[in-house]
Amino acid sequence: MARFIRLIAFLMCIAALSACVTPPAHKDYSAIRTEQPRSILVVPAINKSVEVNAPDYFLTTIAKPLAERGYYVFPVHLVKRLLEDDGLGDADMVHAGGPERLGKMFGSDAVMYISIEQWNAKYVVFSTSVTVSLKYSLKSTATGNTLWENTQTLVYQPQNNSGGGIAGLIAQAVVAAMAKAAPNYMPLARQANTMAIYTKGQGLPAGPYDAAYQKDQADF
Questions:
Q1: 3-state secondary structure of 191
Q2: Would you tell me how many other CB atoms lie within 10 Å of the CB of residue 133?
Q3: How many structural domains does the chain have?
Q4: Which of 59, 70, 130, 145 could form a disulfide with 209 if both were Cys (CB 3.0 to 4.6 A apart)?
Q5: Which residues contact 178 (CB under 8 A, 6 or more apart)?
Q6: Overall pTM > 0.85
Q7: pLDDT tens string 122-165
Q8: CATH number for 64
Q9: Is 77 among the domain residues?
Q10: Where are the extended beta strands (E) located within 161-208?
Q11: What does residue 180 show for φ and ψ, rounded to 5 degrees?
């Protein structure tokens, strides 16, 4: 009986701690509601990770969720090529410049700047954790003001279902080594984009090509 009471008390403590977790504050959407951008130019991401190919991989994941949210998204690879032709092949240089210039170059209403904070796999003998961490910032090409920004970090640790004993440990080490050698970042990047863009109170309001446009003020 005493053991049961201790278990109930422990569960109540956990519930109390969970109740004390404060959800993120609802973002201020007044700027984006005022400017009502219809088109978004996604520029190459700044890469703060050690994976040199991370920006190119990431670039393939961002256009679809933005378009599905109701915005016109300029073809990302074409934008990258045109920037390179114009002497703006360095992402840091592009981010350092004002969005107004990019707006004049492409005719977009807003520019999406993204920084890859983490894009790595950490190997610890019997497990490998894959991490993707991203920062998003949407800026107006008319005023240069920040219309929306968000951050998203996701960690995935592959599960091993092998049996116990020495054989199980060896199998687990092999799985971890394979994940380290060829980590699959793309699902994490796609999920991070979806969460950053669609989460109520944190993501982007519906754009003009979405049926929910101007009807989702309660959530965004």
A1: helix
A2: 19
A3: 1
A4: 70
A5: none
A6: no
A7: 876 556 789 999 999 999 999 999 999 999 999 987 655 544 54
A8: 3.40.50.10610
A9: yes
A10: none
A11: -70, -40
